[in-house]
Amino acid sequence: MKNRNYITMQSHEINYTIQGDDLQMVTIALDPQETVVAEAGTMNWMHPDISFEAKTGDGSEPDKGFFGKILDVGKRALTGESLFLTHFTNHGYNRNEVAFAAPYPGSIVPIDLKQVHGEILCQKDAFLCAAKGTKVSIAFTKRFGAGLFGGEGFILQKLSGDGLAFLHAGGTVIEKELNNESIMVDTGCIVGFSSSIEYTIEKAGNLKSMLFGGEGLFLAKLSGTGKIYLQSLPFSRLADRIIKHAPKMGGKSKGEGSVLGGIGRMIDGDNY
Question: Which domains occur in the chain, in start order?
Answer without folding.
Answer: 2-241 (3.60.160.10)
